[in-house]
Structure formats: C-alpha cells, structure tokens
Amino acid sequence: MRVEKLNDMVKGWFVGNFDPSLYKTNKCEVAVKSYIKGDFEKKHYHKIATEITVIVKGKVKMFNQVFSEGDMIVVEPGEATSFETLENCINVVVKLPGANNDKYECDNEN
C-alpha cells in the first residue's frame, strides 16, 4: 500500500507521465483540480488528447456556456475553449491519451 496527498501533486494531476505521479502512464492523465472564483485559463486546444472535465462543485464557463455540478464536458482534439470559474469549484479532469506538451494557446479569443 502507498498513500500520497493530493496537495503534493502538481496542479492536481496525479496519474500520467510526469513527476510526481501515483501511476506513471502515457495512456491517460487524471487530475482533481480546485479553483477559486475568477480563476481563468486562456483559450487553448489539444492536438492529440481528448479532455473530459467533470464539474464536481461550482460553476465554470467554457465554450461561452455555463456548466455546473454534475456536468461532464468532452473536448475533442482541435476544439478550443477558454476556462473561467464563476464560483469556487472542484473538477475532475481526464485526458486520453496522456500527451505531454499537448496544450496550444490560441492567439486570440475568437
């Protein structure tokens, strides 16, 4: 048995091909992410990975839509969105496959 703390992981990521990681793999990446109201990530996309975001608590804005507790958003490769928290929130994020350096910021917000 091995026990670790989520707070010791980088930005909530705990499964994937990075350090630290509870389970090192290129097959997927998994994170539990906590955000404060107003946190924002620039518009970006992935060329390889499909990213699934599950809203566990709170409200977020993606694709110019509001999502809340229980919503699951599947972002396919090439689909670009920004990410804004409208309330304090907790999300589970899964990326398939795991793909290091597969995040591309968009030059504009359009």
How would you describe this protein?
This protein is an all-beta fold and 110 residues long. Helix content is 0%, strand content 46%. The chain has strands at residues 13-15, 29-35, 40-45, 50-57, 59-62, 65-68, 72-75, 81-85, 89-96, 104-105. The strands form two sheets. It has a five-stranded antiparallel β-sheet, with no helix packed on it. Strand 5 (59-62) and strand 6 (65-68) form a beta hairpin.
List the helices and strands and how they pair.
Layout: E1 13-15, E2 29-35, E3 40-45, E4 50-57, E5 59-62, E6 65-68, E7 72-75, E8 81-85, E9 89-96, E10 104-105
Antiparallel strand pairs: 1-2, 2-9, 3-8, 3-10, 4-7, 4-9, 5-6, 5-8
Summary tags:
five-stranded antiparallel β-sheet, mainly beta, globular, 110 residues, single chain
Strand content: over 45%
Given the helix and strand composition, which structural class is it? mainly beta
Number of strands: 10
Query: Total helix count?
Result: 0
In which range does the helix fraction lie? under 10%
